[in-house]
Design brief:
84 residues, mainly alpha, Non-ribosomal Peptide Synthetase Peptidyl Carrier Protein, Chain A, ACP-like_sf
């Protein structure tokens, strides 16, 4: 399973997203705003989920801004950190 596919599963199931399935999401799906419509509390939860499931830490707001653009950017961030 790719990081992106695992991430879609985690987001839908752990954030209890209703009316959406992991298969409906793409790498271009925005996490906030027009996309999934997540908020700042969800962002905190995502930080915890990324640490728990992937062992990757998002240390500050600047890293978060880059990583949280969409599902693909978060998956790329995770893959890059795991490779270090």
């Amino acid at each position: 399973m790719t990081t992106s596919a695992k991430l879609r599963d985690i987001l839908v199931n752990e954030l209890n997203l209703e009316d959406v399935t992991p298969e409906e999401l793409t790498d271009d799906t925005a996490l906030f705003g027009e996309g999934l419509g997540l908020d700042s509390l969800d962002a905190v939860e995502i930080v915890v989920l990324v640490q728990k499931h992937f062992g990757v830490e998002i240390k500050d707001m600047e890293e978060g801004k880059t990583a949280f653009q969409n599902i693909g950017s978060l998956a790329s961030f995770i893959d890059a950190r795991k490779a270090q």
